[in-house]
Design brief:
25% of the residues lie in helices and 29% in strands. By secondary structure, the chain is of the alpha+beta class. The C terminus is likely disordered.
Length: 110
């Protein structure tokens, strides 16, 4: 799982900066739970989002994407599903992402 800079209008995924790469099964499971548990808004945010989550298979092929919108909304496969999810614990989601983002002194999780 990778966290990339920019939302839907930020250009090709391969050209974007990687903000974090989650590889640990427990961290990926925590991110999965935090980005799929909540209530559907029955609508989509009109902004392009500010961060993109990409999920890859074992051979590094892209499986799906989601974009983060504001504080606590996630839009998985926006063009297909047309429904944002207001996550159950937005603080925990943002904390998890911030905790795993690389800093100049700490590389991304391996």
């Amino acid at each position: 799982m990778r966290i990339l800079d920019g939302g839907e209008d930020a250009g090709p995924l391969a050209d974007r900066a990687t903000l974090a790469e989650l590889r640990s099964p427990s961290t990926i499971e925590a991110a999965r739970k935090l980005t799929t548990t909540g209530r559907f808004t029955e609508n989509i945010c009109r902004c392009p989002g500010d961060t993109t989550i990409t999920l890859h298979d074992d051979s590094d092929e892209l499986v799906t994407t989601a974009s983060l919108h504001g504080y606590g909304n996630v839009s998985w496969e926006r063009q297909r599903l047309h429904n944002d999810l207001h996550v159950a614990d937005p603080a925990a989601l943002h904390l998890l992402l911030a905790t795993h983002a690389p800093t100049p002194h700490a590389p991304a999780e391996r």
